[in-house]
Amino acid sequence: MEETLAVINKLLVEVFNDILLIEESALKSGQFNDVSVTEMHTIEEIGMYEPKSMSEIAKKLKITVGTLTVAINNLVKKGYCERYRSENDRRVVKVGLTKKGRLLYRVHEKFHTDMVKTAIANLSAEEDIALRKALENLSAFLKENYNLNCK
What we know:
This protein is mainly alpha-helical. 69% of the residues lie in helices and 8% in strands.
């Protein structure tokens, strides 16, 4: 049992670190080299279609609206997103992706899709269920023990 715990811990840490390094490297070396991983995750939270309010995005990212404002200012300058005033309440600022932002979103989404497809390739139905259950257990543990109840 201890060997299994050690191996799984090592693999989880390696996979987490590898994903972060790959995302950072891909952003730095690709056509989107002006975007940080943090900005990429902001773009991911803005989403593809419906503009979202600043407060919605800040809540999902677990940051203040003030911190988000700085990030959005940078993304607007770089041409990845735009601000809109709500039609219903002009005080509400909404943010949506530009064409350039939607392209980056799709590229990032494809990376994640390919990664997951590779992870589950050749799994039996039982293995698929076991992997899902293990990840659900891990997710629940993290949310319950580290106050991650926003997502």
